[in-house]
Write a structure and sequence with these properties.
The chain has one domain (about 5-335): Beta-galactosidase, Chain A, domain 5. The chain contains one helix and 30 strands. The protein has one helix at about 50, and strands at about 5-10, 15-20, 25-30, 35-40, 60, 70, 75, 80, 90, 105-110, 115-125, 135-145, 145-155, 160, 165, 170, 185-190, 190-195, 205-210, 220, 235-240, 245, 250-255, 260-265, 270-275, 285, 290, 295-300, 315-320, 325-335. Strands 10, 11, 12, 13, 17, 20, 22, 23, 24 and 30 form a ten-stranded antiparallel sheet that branches. A hairpin with a 5-residue loop joins strand 23 (about 250-255) and strand 24 (about 260-265). The termini are far apart.
Length: about 325
């Protein structure tokens, strides 16, 4: 494996550090209400813990298919495929060695007014059980003083394949070392969720959130009803509310009441996994900070989980001659 490297994008307001290992955001510093910079993503100071598998997908891009595939099996055009069962009884985030655990190749690193960095990865036919070769690129751009954009593209070379990439950053707008996110408020532009079975696989139902603890159509504290959903939120939201800008849908608004930092996320993906770091426990991160349950929140825009096995979900199959395109725009502010 090539040696992973760390790169920086800095526009004088936002400072982003990203590694070629999994296109991983290791640090993202943005100003609070007093203009004080704070690192708002969970992670490690060095690349070694990422290489050793100590990170529960901190900051990385996951694929070829994000989230869970039931029993690690699917059928496409009459052919049966079996994937590694790395999160029994399912396959999760691309298998044992998904795109988060490979070193991507640097294509371009631009400075200037809109600094950007582009990585590419060529996924082989049969890699982690998936069909066909896939050429993948990811570009991070600081498009304005307080805006980060991620553009992910994937082009199948010779066979149809499921593709659904996701950016798996754990956010804590109070600062990565500020404790849990239960007092953050969140608004999600979704009137429906895809409820799950005991193995976190969607049942196929598209369920209205009204009158349930999943309703974040208006701003609510993350912790206000979290005790009603088991160990926490780990659910796919159907982004079906009309609010668009830059050709992208408004997915979520996250706010920390102490620092007054706000993150608005816009995307062209159909769904978003809202995950409250339920399985994080006793991880020692940057600067010796301890990360525990609910110490961050993931806002993973995506195709629906297990969509390859659910005919009523939006298709994630991409065929030769077609292109997968997934954009996310992270807009930071204070209020």
């Amino acid at each position: 494996m090539a040696e992973p490297k760390l790169f920086e994008l800095n526009n004088g307001t936002i400072q982003l550090k990203v590694s070629s290992l999994g296109c991983t955001i290791t640090s993202l510093s943005v100003p609070d209400k007093n203009g004080k910079l704070g690192d708002v993503v969970l992670g490690f100071d060095a690349l070694e813990p990422y290489l050793k598998g100590a990170a529960p997908y901190f900051g990385c891009i996951v694929g070829r298919v994000a989230n869970r595939i039931k029993d690690g099996k699917f059928t496409l055009d009459g052919a049966h495929y079996s994937l590694p069962i790395n999160k029994p009884p399912n396959s999760l985030h691309g298998g044992h060695k998904g795109y988060d655990k490979v070193v991507w190749e640097l294509v371009e690193h631009k400075q200037g007014n809109e600094p950007s960095i582009t990585f590419k990865y060529y996924s082989r036919d049969g890699e982690e059980g998936y069909p066909g070769e896939l050429a993948v690129t990811a570009t991070y751009t600081l498009t304005s003083a307080t805006t980060l954009r991620l553009d992910m593209k994937a082009v199948p070379q010779n066979k149809p394949t499921p593709v659904s990439l996701a950016q798996h950053t754990y956010w804590n707008l109070g600062g990565h070392n500020s404790g849990n996110v239960l007092d953050h408020t969140i608004q999600i532009w979704a009137k429906h969720v895809t409820p799950v079975d005991q193995n976190t696989i969607p049942t196929g139902e598209i369920m209205p959130v009204k009158d349930t603890p999943f309703d974040f159509t208006t701003e609510q504290k993350i912790g206000s009803r979290i005790h009603e959903v088991g160990i926490g939120y780990d659910h796919n939201y159907v982004l079906d509310c009309e609010d668009e800008q830059w050709g992208l849908k408004h997915a979520v608004k996250l706010k920390d009441p102490v620092s007054s930092r706000v993150l608005n996320l816009w995307t062209n993906a159909p769904g978003m996994q809202f995950y409250t770091a339920n399985y994080v426990h006793g991880i020692v991160g940057k600067g010796g900070a301890q990360y525990d349950k609910h110490s961050g929140v993931c806002l993973e825009t995506q195709g629906f989980p297990n969509a390859i096995n659910q005919p009523n979900f939006p298709s994630i199959v991409v065929r030769p001659g077609e292109k997968y395109e997934h954009s996310m725009l992270f807009e930071f502010s204070v209020e």
